[in-house]
Amino acid sequence: MDWDNMNRGRRLKIQDEYTSKIKAYSRCYGNINKFLDKLCKSFQSKITKKTIENIKNKDEVMGVFREETQIPIVLFKIRKEEKKAEKSNL
Fold first, then answer.
1. CA 20 to CA 79: how far, in whole Å?
2. What's the chain's Rg over C-alpha atoms?
3. How many Å is the maximal CA-CA distance in the chain?
4. How confident is the model at residue 68 (pLDDT cuts 50, 70, 90)?
5. Alpha-carbon gap, residue 12 to 50, rounded angstroms
6. Residue 55 has what DSSP assignment?
7. I need a surface site. Which of 28, 35, 62, 64 has the fewest CB within 10 A?
8. pLDDT of 10-67, one tens digit each?
9. 26, 65 in Cβ contact below 8 A?
């Protein structure tokens, strides 16, 4: 998704949709493994089992996803920008 060429209203609508999905999935799936699996599939992304295993304080992380849904959205955006920068440096 090209955020740079998208108007602000459309970006906010998509961000709201992502936020809703995060809230819904975090409440439906109490287990972080199931939650992240469903969330990544929804965003057409992948996460490795090793990455999930390396998460410390799994309950605290799930709490952030339930209560502070804007934080994961910002982290997704940051990671996407990092990948974009990596590609442009090649």
1. 20
2. 14
3. 41
4. confident
5. 32
6. -
7. 28
8. 888 888 888 888 888 888 988 888 888 888 888 788 888 888 888 888 888 888 888 8
9. yes
